[in-house]
C-alpha cells in the first residue's frame, strides 16, 4: 500500500513536500526553456528585489513569508552569481539595502515574460482539477493562522487522554501516592514543612475526618494526580495539595482534577473555594485562573512559608 494512502491526511505535510519537490524539479525544466541559468528557489527573492528596489533584507523576508536567515542565504547565492548587490543603508548602517546589478536588470524582462507564461499555464492546470489547489492553500493557511496544527492535535490528544482518566475518591491505600505526588513538586521548588507532613502522613486525621475530601486521577492504571478539599469555616473549602506527576503533565489532568474538585465542593454546599500558592508556580496559577479563581487579600494568615498569594472562587449556593 502506498505510504500516503496508508496514513491519509496524517501525512499531509509529507504529501505537500513531495508535491513541492515535483514542482521544483519541473520548474527547473521551465527555466531551461527560456535559457535562464537560474535556481527556482531564488525566484521569490529576486522577483521582490526587482519589482521593489532598495528593500531591506527583513522587509524582503516579511513580504515573501520566509525567514531572515533563508533570505540572507539566497541573497548570498544571487550576489555570487552577479545578479544582486547588497549595500549598507546610508541612514542605518546596520540595515542592508538590496538592488539588482546590471546583469540582474538584463535578466529581469525575460523572467517577467516567463512568469506570465507560467501563470497562464498554471491557471489552465488548476482548471483541469476538480479542486482549485491555489484557493484551497489560501483556505488552509487561514485556518492554520486561526489555530495551529499543534494546537489542534493537542485538543484531540487531551480529549482522548481525558476519556482515559478516572477521578477516584481517596482510600487509605492511596496515602503513599498522595504523599509521593505532593512531596515531588514541593521539594522541587521549596521544602516540605511541618504542616505539609501532618496532612501528607495523616490525611485521615487532618483532611478527611474534619469533613474534607481527597480526589485522585488515575491514568493507565497509575495514580498520576491528586488534590484535596479541606473544610474551613463559613461554608468554605480550601483547594489544597494539588499535584500532577511530571510524567503526566501537559495532558490536561490538572484541569480535570480542578473541575472535579469544584464540582464536589458545590455538591457539599460550599459557597466559596479558597487556595494558597506561590507566584513562581506559573502553570498552576494559570490553571486556577481558568477555573475562575481570583487573587484575594482577605485570606487568613498562611501556615506555609512558601505562600505569597491567596485566591478565591465564589460559588453559587
UniProtKB/TrEMBL annotation:
UniProt keyword list: Transferase
Pfam families hit by this protein: Acetyltransf_1, MarR_2
UniProt KW Transferase keyword: yes
Domain spans labelled HTH marR-type: 9-158
Gene Ontology terms for molecular function: DNA-binding transcription factor activity; N-acetyltransferase activity
PANTHER family: GNAT FAMILY N-ACETYLTRANSFERASE, LD18367P
Designated name of the protein: GNAT family N-acetyltransferase
Organism of this sequence: Hymenobacter metallicola
Amino acid at each position: 500500500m502506498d505510504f500516503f494512502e496508508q496514513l491519509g491526511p496524517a501525512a499531509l505535510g509529507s504529501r505537500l513536500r513531495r508535491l513541492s519537490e515535483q514542482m521544483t524539479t519541473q520548474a527547473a525544466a521551465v527555466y531551461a526553456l527560456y535559457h535562464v541559468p537560474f535556481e527556482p528557489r531564488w525566484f521569490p527573492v529576486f522577483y521582490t528585489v526587482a519589482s521593489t528596489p532598495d528593500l531591506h533584507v527583513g522587509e524582503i523576508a516579511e513580504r515573501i513569508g520566509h525567514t531572515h536567515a533563508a533570505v540572507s542565504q539566497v541573497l548570498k547565492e544571487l550576489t555570487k552569481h552577479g545578479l544582486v548587490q547588497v549595500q549598507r543603508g546610508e541612514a542605518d548602517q546596520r540595515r542592508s539595502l538590496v538592488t539588482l546589478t546590471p546583469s540582474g536588470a538584463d535578466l529581469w524582462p525575460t523572467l517577467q515574460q516567463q512568469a506570465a507564461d507560467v501563470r497562464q499555464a498554471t491557471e489552465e492546470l488548476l482548471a483541469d482539477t476538480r479542486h482549485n489547489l491555489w484557493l484551497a492553500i489560501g483556505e488552509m493557511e487561514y485556518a492554520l493562522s486561526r489555530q495551529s496544527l499543534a494546537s489542534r492535535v493537542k485538543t484531540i490528544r487531551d480529549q482522548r487522554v481525558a476519556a482515559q482518566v478516572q477521578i477516584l475518591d481517596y482510600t487509605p491505600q492511596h496515602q503513599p501516592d498522595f504523599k509521593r505526588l505532593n512531596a515531588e513538586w514541593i521539594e522541587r521548588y521549596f521544602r516540605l514543612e511541618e504542616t505539609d507532613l501532618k496532612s501528607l502522613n495523616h490525611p485521615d486525621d487532618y483532611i478527611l475526618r474534619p469533613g474534607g475530601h481527597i480526589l485522585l486521577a488515575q491514568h493507565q492504571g497509575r495514580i498520576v494526580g491528586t488534590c484535596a478539599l479541606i473544610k474551613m469555616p463559613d461554608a468554605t473549602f480550601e483547594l489544597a495539595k494539588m499535584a500532577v506527576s511530571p510524567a503526566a503533565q501537559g495532558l490536561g489532568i490538572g484541569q480535570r482534577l480542578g473541575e472535579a474538585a469544584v464540582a464536589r465542593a458545590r455538591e457539599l454546599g460550599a459557597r466559596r473555594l479558597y487556595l494558597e500558592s506561590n507566584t513562581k508556580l506559573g502553570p498552576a496559577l494559570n490553571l486556577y485562573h481558568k477555573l475562575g479563581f481570583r487573587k484575594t487579600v482577605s485570606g487568613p494568615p498562611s501556615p506555609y512559608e512558601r505562600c505569597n498569594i491567596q485566591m478565591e472562587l465564589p460559588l453559587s449556593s
